Amino acid sequence: MKTVLISGGSIAGPALAYWLGRYGFRTTLVERAPALREGGQAVDFRGTAHLTVLERMGLLDEIRRLQTHTGAVAVVDADGKQLSSLPSEIMSGEVEIARGDLSRVFYEATKDRTEYVFGDSITSLTERADRIDVTFERSAPRTFDLVVGADGVHSGVRRLAFGPESDFRRDLGVCSAVFTVPNRFGLDHRGLMYSTPGKGVYVYSKRDTAEATAALFFASQRLEYDHRNTEQHKDIVTSVFADEGWEAPWLLTAMREAPDFYFDRASQIHIDRYSNGRAVLLGDAGYAGGPGAMGTGLAVVGAYVLAGELAAAPDDHRTAFARYEERIRPYAAVCMKQAEGLDRFLVPQTRSQIWTRNLMWKALPYLPWKGVITKITTKAANAITLKDYAQDVKFGQRPVYANG
Question: Which residues are in the FAD-binding domain (predicted)?
Answer without folding.
Answer: 3-334
